[in-house]
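Sequence in, structure out. Go.
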Amino acid sequence: MLLAVSAGSWLNNVGQLIQILILFVIVLLITLLTTRWIARYQQGQMHNQNLKIIETLKISANSYIQIIEAGDVYLVIAVSRDRVDKLAEITKDQLKADTADKAGQRIDMGESFHDILEKVKHHLPKK
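Output:
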């Protein structure tokens, strides 16, 4: 009799656990769908605008220099907590398309992880 009571309560506990897991999955799905809907809505709002941030450089905790494309014009602006100042107007020809790392070396974006790993292996000391 004690076995029957404990088996019944055990099944009841497993049933409650499954219900909670199902509710958790439903909440996750609702969150996923809501996030996707908001992302599509915001992308639709920003799709036809003429302003694009090309590059941002952080100067201090609250200060940035940004290159912004406004239509066909490229502007260099300084952005701080309370102000936005126009520093210069540049042409598209003055922009550099090369990507460089902090040491100034050119980064090949088409390079695979395997190639990078092989380069690192050659620089490690041998035991």
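Check: The chain has two helices and four strands. The two ends are 68 Å apart (CA to CA).
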